[in-house]
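Recall the central idea of this unit: under ordinary conditions, the amino acid sequence of a chain determines the structure it adopts. In this exercise we apply that idea directly, starting from the sequence alone.
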Amino acid sequence: MRLDKLVSHGAGISRKQAAQVIRGSRVLVNGEAVTRPEAHCGEDALVTLDGRPLATGKRYYMLNKPLGMVCATRDSKEPTVLELLPAHLRRGIFPAGRLDKDTVGFVLLTNDGAFAHRVLSPKQRVGKTYRVTLNAAFSLEMLQLAFSQPMDLGGGDITSPARLHLLQGGNTPVAQLVIYEGRFHQVKRMFSRFGLTVTALERTAIGGLALDPDLAPGQWKPLTQEELDMVFSDASKP
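Accordingly, the structure predicted from this sequence is:
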């Protein structure tokens, strides 16, 4: 593959920008600077930009989902999160898990099906952390006990034990909830069982990897191998 094409795909930049960083000696191939954009390199080559490894085949992105977009590869009525990526990066990419249209925060995008399955499988116990704003005060002790046990949401949907913490009290409290599966409207349905309405919902982390605070809604970035490993760093927690 041409080096400028590989850098463009791996770094999420245009071919013109890729050529500029290559000519600027910012790209190394197997530890050596290569300054010709048209140079070819093998798929097994280690390519770095400013010391950051670039994926040459499988790709992984963190995206901060804004309100009003759906987590799908295509939709005839609503804008999708893939539309936030440049067109040349969308091929083969899909969300590893979905957020509702009115939920914001961390969406993991990839073209690696095995990786996505590992993230989403309840057996792997990769926690998904949410910041939940509610419409009324509640008994923290009561909800912590209820959420720490399997919960029947109706229709045969039984959750795994979850972890609940209070971040802010008052009449519009804010809680942190960690769940281990992604059932339809799961967070909203869990609180609804106790007469509470979720007024705002943000996914702040997947596993041990938190949403980058520097990513504004609608922005995204490629993930490093170290960041990918962090996704599974809390998989053993109850």
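The chain has three domains: 3-53, 60-122+208-231, 127-206.
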